[in-house]
Fold this protein.
Amino acid sequence: MVETADVVSFTGSTGVGRAVVRAATERGVPVQAELGGLNAALVLPDADLELAAAHIAAAIAGYAGQKCTATSRVIAVGAAYQPLREALVKALAAVDDSVCGPVVNSGARDRLTGAVDSAVEAGATVLTGGGVPERAGWYVEPTLLADVPAEHPLAREEFFGPIAVLHAAADLDEAIALANDTPHSLATSVHTRSLDVALAAADRLDAGMIRVNAPSSGVDFHLPFGGAKGASHGEREQGQAALDFYTAGRTVSVLPGGGAL
């Protein structure tokens, strides 16, 4: 397809995406790629914590976490940590099969549960979930872990499942540093009642899309879609950006013709 197309748009893994970008670039055709995402949710102490927990739980478990904009890291700032932890455990435990369906295959299920087991062996604590429900299908329980070592793959890589890691940050500066400490900055959500704080955070976050008091996994089809760093390559998707990507501008200059009328 890359060898024959006039324009290439790819969504998938980082490794395959980079190969697609190289092939399209060698041909000199426009190419865009949406790749990995390791998305964070920042929760400030002044946020509506019950509402934030509901939004974040939906972004963790919706579609079994198989969305590039799913939340996989939750960063609670200061005094928000303990009440958010309790609210998020409750919200994830209440998620049903209509929200968190099966993962794509048995290999994905085993990879996810294996990652949880590995994190526990490294010192992490399972706050909720972590296992496989007793029913037919490739299901994984919506899972939240705490105390995951910073170097563990669950804290560094996209696993594409209903699993998230909870972090504590002393203040907003530390929360932003944690959120930005990833090679895949696609979407970040910020939960606070302060517009000033939300806008100040947005200025400092690396993510390509920032959603305030909303799940990271939401999509506005009329707005540009794309990330920063390793999350995206090339032009944005959707909205006017998509029209610009799939079309080419032309310049036509018209001079008056010679001769008398």
Observations:
- The CA atoms of residues 64 and 100 lie 4 Å apart.
- Residues 8-34+223-242 form one domain.
- The chain has eight helices and twelve strands.
- The chain has a mean pLDDT of 94.
